[in-house]
Design a protein that fits this description.
With 252 residues, the chain is α/β, with parallel strands linked by helices. The chain has a five-stranded mixed sheet with strand order 7-8-6-9-10, with helices on one face. It is 29% helix and 29% strand. It contains six helices and eleven strands. The chain starts with a strand and ends with a helix. The radius of gyration is 20 Å and the shape is globular.
Length: 252
C-alpha cells in the first residue's frame, strides 16, 4: 500500500528535554492507525511536528510524497487544498469553494478554566510591558514522567503570542547552579511533582515592586470530560470548520 504520511528519524527537543527521538511511522492509504503510549511519551508532540505547529530539529516528514518538514500549518493546509482542487477541478469552480465537511473543535486542553486562563495570559502579556517577567509554575502527580506539562507549554505559547515572541527561542527551563542573571524576555518554567495532584498551573507576571499571579487548579479529571461535552453541545448545528475552545467560550 502507498504511504499518505511518513516520517523518518524525527527529532525534537525543548532545551535539555528530548521529546521526540528518531520517530519513524508510516500511515498507509485506506488503513486505520493509532498512536499509543503512556502519559508524556510524546504523542502530542509528534502530531504537532506533523501539523507544522513545531519545526523538527532533524528528520523528514513527507505528505503524499512531498516534504512538509518545517512548513507552517497554514502552508501545509494551503498546499493540500491546492492538490485537492486540482484533483477535483470538475466539481469546484475555485479553491475557495472547497470547505471542511465537519465541525472540529481543537485544543491542547479541553478544560474550560485552562482555556480561559490561556486567553487571560495572552491579554495580560500583551498589556504589561517587558519589565514584567513571566514565570510558569506547574505541579502534577508523582507518576507524571514529562516536564513541563503540555498545559504549561500551552500557557507559555499564549504568553509568547501576547509578547510577539517565539517560545522555543525565549524560554528558560530547569535552572540549577550558577545560572547567571535572568535573560530579558525569557518565559520561565518550573515543574513540581508529588502526591496525586491532577494539575496545578500558575502564570506569574513579576514586575517592579509588584506581582500578578493567574492560576488554575484541577481538582478532578472529570473537568476535561465536562469541557468536551460543552464543546460538543456548542458545536452541534454549527457550520463546518475548525474551531478552538476560545470560540466555545466566546472569548475574543
Amino acid at each position: 500500500m502507498d504511504a499518505v504520511l511518513e516520517t523518518r528519524s524525527l527529532c525534537k527537543s525543548f532545551g535539555a528535554l528530548t521529546v521526540a527521538n528518531a520517530v519513524d511511522f508510516r500511515l498507509e492509504r485506506g488503513a486505520r492507525h493509532a498512536l499509543i503510549g503512556p502519559n508524556g511519551a510524546g504523542k502530542t508532540t509528534a502530531f504537532n511536528l506533523v501539523s507544522g505547529l513545531f519545526p523538527p530539529d532533524a528528520g523528514t516528514i513527507e505528505l503524499e510524497g512531498r516534504s512538509i518538514a518545517g512548513l507552517k500549518p497554514e502552508d501545509i493546509t494551503d498546499a493540500e487544498m491546492q492538490q485537492f482542487y486540482k484533483a477535483h477541478s470538475d466539481e469546484y469552480n475555485k479553491p475557495e469553494e472547497v470547505r471542511v465537511s465537519a465541525v472540529i473543535v481543537k485544543s491542547g486542553n479541553m478544560s474550560l478554566g485552562v482555556n480561559l486562563l490561556a486567553a487571560l495570559v495572552k491579554r495580560v502579556a500583551q498589556t504589561l510591558d517587558p519589565s514584567f517577567d513571566i514565570e510558569i509554575l506547574e505541579m502534577h502527580h508523582k507518576g507524571k514522567i514529562d516536564a513541563p506539562s503540555g498545559t504549561a507549554l500551552m500557557l507559555g505559547e499564549a504568553a509568547a503570542a501576547g509578547r510577539k515572541l517565539k517560545l522555543d527561542k525565549q524560554s528558560a527551563r530547569g535552572r540549577d547552579g550558577v545560572t547567571g542573571a535572568r535573560r530579558t524576555g525569557d518565559i520561565g518554567f518550573a515543574s513540581l511533582r508529588g502526591g496525586t495532584a491532577a494539575g496545578d498551573h500558575s502564570v506569574i507576571f513579576a514586575g517592579p515592586s509588584e506581582r500578578l499571579t493567574l492560576s488554575h487548579l484541577a481538582e478532578d479529571r472529570m473537568l476535561f470530560a465536562h469541557g468536551v461535552l460543552k464543546a460538543a453541545l456548542w458545536a452541534h448545528g454549527r457550520k463546518p470548520g475548525l474551531y478552538t475552545m476560545i470560540d466555545v467560550l466566546g472569548v475574543a
